[in-house]
Design the sequence.
């Protein structure tokens, strides 16, 4: 359970090593990236913005969570491991997006939400994940949400949009994942519609004009 993980000797040892800049084998990926190219984006980000205040203090301040990695469209460069639509096209038995730990993890986050400063949401498609509805509703008003979305749905009609609109506009950060335009956009991002993307961007500009970014993703 998440409670046992947070109280474990192993996690405390990892945090102690991080504070003292001692290599821990659980950190091999970041360590290799940094030694080979001075680049370990995740570690450097958290060191700068969310340093460990205390080895044994576990107040929850930052959440980076992806409840599942199943996207609702089938991009040309993707695969059934990340797309339920690709599973359908290739007639692969769908893997469940429901994980046995999700309800307990959500409850744990909710119970510790008073100190939340930032929630990063990705997926899959985070705006279609019901667990995030609860986070939009219960998180403190000063909590910042960073959302990576494909904008393939009707954003304005989602049931929790009123909860987002109540929050300070500059605390909602949108990163739209897309590439190409018009017919080329729909060719690469099969299942998404260009007109819907434009409509959603217009809605975002109306309500969050200062916090919208576009992440152009393309892979050969």
Sequence:
């Amino acid at each position: 359970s998440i409670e046992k993980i947070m109280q474990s000797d192993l996690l405390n040892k990892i945090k102690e090593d991080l504070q003292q800049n001692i290599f821990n084998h659980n950190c091999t990926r970041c360590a290799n990236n940094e030694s080979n190219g001075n680049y370990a984006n995740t570690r450097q980000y958290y060191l700068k913005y969310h340093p460990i205040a205390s080895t044994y203090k576990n107040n929850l301040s930052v959440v980076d969570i992806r409840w599942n990695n199943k996207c609702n469209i089938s991009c040309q460069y993707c695969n059934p491991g990340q797309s339920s639509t690709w599973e359908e096209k290739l007639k692969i038995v769908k893997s469940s997006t429901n994980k046995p730990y999700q309800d307990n993890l959500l409850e744990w986050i909710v119970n510790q939400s008073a100190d939340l400063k930032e929630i990063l949401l990705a997926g899959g498609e985070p705006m279609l994940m019901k667990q995030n509805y609860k986070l939009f509703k219960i998180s403190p008003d000063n909590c910042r949400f960073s959302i990576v979305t494909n904008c393939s749905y009707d954003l304005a009609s989602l049931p929790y949009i009123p909860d987002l609109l109540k929050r300070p506009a500059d605390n909602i950060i949108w990163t739209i994942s897309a590439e190409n335009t018009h017919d080329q956009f729909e060719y690469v991002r099969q299942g998404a519609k260009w007109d819907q993307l434009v409509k959603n961007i217009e809605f975002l500009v109306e309500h969050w004009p200062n916090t919208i970014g576009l992440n152009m993703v393309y892979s050969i």
